[in-house]
Specification:
CATH topology: NE0471 N-terminal domain-like
Bound molecules: zinc ion
Order of helices and strands: EEEHHEEEEEHH
Shape: globular
Helix content: 10-25%
Distance between the termini: 45 Å
CATH class: Alpha Beta
Strand content: 25-35%
Number of domains: 1
Largest sheet: 3 strands, antiparallel
Number of strands: 8
Length: 127
């Protein structure tokens, strides 16, 4: 069984991301837009297939599937979470400002999405 890792604290970081403190003491961040894009619910999975299929092109090396750049993903405007609810002892349900509320994000999934790089390193290069 995989290690069961749990968040000990969730908070908004700025306007665009979620900060999660995990029970191993590490602090990760996830951009809301990214969370929305990877929503694991069935209807989003269908949408993703529609997006990805035309991008899967046969090449000499076989089928190559490239990863969408953020700017290539159609946006409906900035999507923000309106509610975050614990589901049992293993997940969070996120309700989005576009009304979408069927995505259940397990702790492990959230953990895998977290960016654990120190903020100062990434943000410093700007300006
Ligand atoms: Zn969804």
């Amino acid at each position: 069984m995989p290690t069961s890792i749990r968040p000990t604290a969730l908070s908004k970081l700025g306007d665009d991301r979620l900060q999660i403190t995990w029970d191993d003491g590490r602090i990760g961040t996830i951009v809301w837009a990214k969370l929305r894009e990877v929503c694991p619910c069935a209807s989003c999975n269908e949408d993703r297939h529609k997006i990805f299929e035309p991008l899967a092109k046969p090449t000499e090396a076989g089928l190559s599937l490239r990863v969408l750049q953020e700017k290539e993903i159609p946006k409906h405007g900035p999507v923000k979470p309106t509610a975050l609810t614990a589901v049992g002892n293993y997940a969070y349900k996120i309700v989005w400002s576009d009304g979408h509320d069927t995505g259940i994000f397990t702790f492990e999934f959230l953990h895998s999405l977290c960016d654990f790089s120190p903020l100062s390193a990434g943000e410093r290069g700007r300006g």
